[in-house]
Amino acid sequence: MTQPLIAERLHDFAGPTIFSEMTALAQQAGAANLGQGFPDSDGPPELLAAAADAIGRGLNQYPPATGLPELREAIAARRTADQRLTYDPRTEVVVTAGATEAIAAALIGLCDPGDEVIVFDPLYDSYSACLAMAQVRRVPVLLEFDGTRFTFDPEAFRRAVTPRTRLVLLNTPHNPTGKVFDESELALIAEVCMAHDLVAVTDEVYEHLVYDGLRHRSLATLPGMRERTLTISSAGKTFSCTGWKVGWACGPARLVTTVRTVKQYLTFGTGTPFQAAVAHGLTRCMPWVDELRAELARRRDLLVAELRAVGITTYPCDATYFVQMDARSFGHDDGETLCRALIRDAGVAAIPSVALYDDKAAGRHLVRLAFCKEPGLLTTAARRLAAYASDASAAPREGQERTSND
Ligand code: PMP
Ligand code: GLN
Asked: Where in this chain does the entry annotate a coiled-coil region (predicted)?
């Protein structure tokens, strides 16, 4: 690949993301793509019709930089219905180009070079890149599997705070672990934020994709947190329209104004007709989202049952599109080598979770599978994985020999 002329602070980010890379490899190999997290079916027909209608009605010019007023009102109404939080749609809600832009604008706008941000490891890939763009140091707190669930050491979290800490960046429900941060974890994060006067930025793009009767709770609902929390979400996952890139941030005006200030120079505004459609979706299509949630839980169960039946270890998943499996079930201790072998030899694309880990040793054996795919594709992929695992247990693979010399 051509070496780009790129600033030193971005050297680690040159080249396509792991998601683009795996999707391209899957397309070349004709593999079942359980890599990049996008659904392979469309959102509610009524939502799609609302977008077409908005284009037909001439909503094709710039939106206001803060987003269409009807969308900001619909977002505020949802926050009240879902989390009993009240936001003023004029000053406390801003629409962005996906959650990705809201995250970028928050980090760039709230931090100075040399500041520190506490993140939970593994972390979504855009966090590290945005922190590098803003010349901010990321301070990871590891989520470790304790035999039951992924969780963190409270003392490690407390120790992560220094005089340079500007904010805590929290993703719940969490990609790639499928974890929903529980009451006691949220309470600890809130306590530390308040004790050190820290801002919290929460990425809640999977807020509606939580299974088994569990509930997602926004950090902003904890006592004292609304005034210091910027809550970020997106229509992409909620309505299966990841290509529309309509996201938003809600919070006190002092934080929302920061996001607005930066985003007006990043994109200014995007996707006017899609914004109109998402306003419709948030008001009218939530029953469809309830069905999506139930369907995704069934797909998770289908995939996990097929894998477990042949002895492939999977980790618990309470939410999101993703379940992780253990590369060691295939005789590999390195998920990255396994993912490359799976595309080539098994016809399945997955994401090596290590790509999202700061602590590479901790994530080395984990592989992320996206189950937001048609059941037929999930079954095909699971059977291919099962066949590959049984071959692997019959004979040691080349990849295994290589990794044992690392
Ligand atoms: N945060 C997380 C945790 C994600 O998994 C994703 C991918 N949807 C995003 C942010 C980006 O969201 P969007 O596509 O709305 O920019
Ligand atoms: N959020 C998607 C995932 O985790 C990827 C989105 C992207 O490709 N940037 O798979």
From this structure: none
